[in-house]
Amino acid sequence: MSTNLYNLPGFGGGQANEPQPGRGGPAAASGGEAAPADPALAPAGESRPSSVGDVLAQTQIEPVLAELDRELVGLVPVKTRIREIAALLVIDRLRTAHGLTAQTPSLHMCFTGNPGTGKTTVALRMAQILHRLGYVRKGHLVAVTRDDLVGQYIGHTAPKTKEVLKKAMGGVLFIDEAYYLYRPENERDYGQEAIEILLQVMENQRDDLVVILAGYQDRMDTFFQSNPGMSSRIAHHLSFPDYSVDELLSIADLMLGQMNYHFDEGALAAFREYVAHRVQQPHFANARSVRNALDRARLRQANRLFADRDAPIDAQALTTLAESDIRASRVFRDGLSAPHRS
Ligand SMILES: Nc1ncnc2c1ncn2[C@@H]1O[C@H](COP(=O)(O)OP(=O)(O)OP(=O)(O)O)[C@@H](O)[C@H]1O
Ligand SMILES: [Mg+2]
Fold this sequence. Notes:
This protein has 342 residues and is of the alpha/beta class. It has 16 helices and eight strands.
């Protein structure tokens, strides 16, 4: 069994049964017939979209874009690119409705950036957008790494890669650190076999599978230089910048709100200090490090509250992270310059 292969919650198999606004949404025929396979190919009773507004109403992608704006701090260049891609696809729907589009546009993408910059999160949203616009049937995301695709022995790689592709069909295949598929130092590396199968499917089944390659920018550049076939199949390159300290604090605030916690005044100031130092340390992973730091603060808060078993605890106490919950971090304990992870 693969350990790294997972269908992310909320976007997995169940999604296929959810109402699909692009296919059976507000403008769908009310006859109880099966939803049309393609929102732009309107059946009798459903009006052919004649404006951008029609496609937006039929596909309901605006709420997804709005959610992306709301739930992700910063990432302005990424959000802009996603809107551009969405616009391209909306126009493609209209072109299809007018019989002007000959083939499915190539939608394979590459997301580059450091750890914790939001690549997986955005890929999930992208899968949702593509689904709503009718470019993938199910809209789920299957996230894998080299180990899920490449076998250890002769004859193992092809079945492994094909199994993953089968699971991802109708959705998005997200390959994290995709460059590890290519190991030039080992002549007989099985990664090459996986790449060749992927290339074929990316070309022949692009109407039913979108592949997103993710990883560090420099390694991805090298990978593309050595694999021009892969490079030429990637239509969209999105680069995810590191977050500024202010953005990281906004991300913390957003995460705390979602979890029903907040900082008190002292904790907020301490956390700002914490982040300002943490960004300079090794192994800093942007929003992921923020999430981890908050998890540890919640742990300390729980232990602080737990220690006094007779004190009444109100909602305020249960939701408040105090300065001491932050300052107990090793970043403060070992001196602010010491390179530590937590
Ligand atoms: N801009 C953002 N606003 C709010 N939360 C964010 C943002 N970017 C990332 N996060 C959160 O940070 C965590 C890590 O993000 P994600 O897994 O998408 O990053 P990644 O680039 O895929 O990282 P990795 O390379 O480590 O896999 C997630 O919990 C995500 O919700
Ligand atoms: Mg990720």
